[in-house]
Every structure is written in C-alpha cells, then in structure tokens.
TrEMBL record:
A GO MF term: dioxygenase activity
UniProt-listed PANTHER family: ALPHA-KETOGLUTARATE-DEPENDENT DIOXYGENASE ALKB HOMOLOG 3
Single GO biological process annotation from the record: DNA alkylation repair
UniProt domain Fe2OG dioxygenase: residue ranges: 45-149
Protein name (Swiss-Prot/TrEMBL): Fe2OG dioxygenase domain-containing protein
InterPro entries documented for this protein: AlkB-like, AlkB-like_sf, ALKBH3, Oxoglu/Fe-dep_dioxygenase_dom
Length: 163
C-alpha cells in the first residue's frame, strides 16, 4: 500500500506488487500507531506499507535485509516501523559482520499489538527473519511501514518532491 500520489510498485526478489492507495481504515490505524512511534504529524508518516500474512508457524521469511532500491536502506539512515497482529512469533536479527565474541543471533518474540522498529543503518549491517516454528498455531499479520525515497521514474510522487 502507498500514500496518495505514489504509484511505485514493490519488488522483492521475483515478486512485483502493484500499489494500492491507503484505504480509510489504514489511515485510521496509522492515526493510532504513528504517534506511538513519535510521528504525530500526518505529513511525516511513512508513504508505504507491506502487509504480510503468516497463516501458522509453518510460514516464514528467510534471512534478508529490507534493502530494496526504493527505500535506500543500504545507503542512508532509515526507519522501518512494524506492527504485529495475531499469534506471537519469533523475530531474529543477525549481524552481517559479527565482532569476535558477539552473539550470532538475537531473538525477540513479537506478540499481538507489538511494535518493532529498525532504525539507522540496520539494513546495511544486519539481516532479519521470521523462522518456521512447528508449535505455533494461528495466524499473524505483520504491517511494515517504510518511506519510499527513490521513486520509480514514472511515479507522480517523484515530480512532487525532491529527495
């Protein structure tokens, strides 16, 4: 999903998703969540959101960084805001170049209503995943908000702002 005025497609691996403008329910949800993240002014809110459904513990996402070109997370400090809804799931983070003696993987459990942020240069220096968990029953929805900073050349938002 994207803010009004953006027409950027989302590409992850071989998957390409056409943008859908934030519906009213998304803006209502954001009006509750964004102030909790220090963003009370709607003009500063993220201009994109991915929604992912994990039907049960058998569904997962492997090690990756949110380093898609449109977000510029490998080159600039960025923020990613994530809301978990549904059953509790593991979220793991590992350094790309761990220091000697550093724990290889850090893990937290994200439950219903938990907000997790990744900020700064996390996407350059770390990878994260939601691993498979055989003992998890029930669905989890994850909403991941980000800022598109390098709009596709044909996107109207590219002409509205200079980044």
């Amino acid at each position: 999903m994207v803010a009004q005025g953006c027409a950027c497609t989302y590409k992850y691996g071989r998957i390409e998703v056409e943008p859908q403008v934030y519906p009213p329910w998304m803006l209502q949800l954001m009006s509750q969540i964004m102030p909790l993240c220090g963003l009370p002014d709607q003009s500063t809110w993220p201009n994109s959101c991915n929604l992912n459904l994990y039907e049960d513990g058998g569904m997962s996402v492997g090690w990756h960084s949110d380093d898609e070109k449109v977000f510029q997370g490998k080159f600039n400090d960025i923020a990613i805001l994530s809301l978990s809804l549904g059953v509790k799931r593991k979220f793991e983070l590992r350094a790309n170049w761990p220091e000697e003696g550093e724990r290889p993987v850090r893990m937290i459990h994200l439950g219903d209503g938990d907000i997790c942020t990744m900020e700064g240069m996390v996407q350059k220096h770390y990878q994260h995943r939601v691993p498979k968990e055989g003992n998890v029953q029930g669905p989890r929805i994850n909403l991941t908000w980000r800022w598109v900073v390098l709009h596709n050349p044909q996107c109207p938002a590219k002409r509205m702002r200079r980044y």
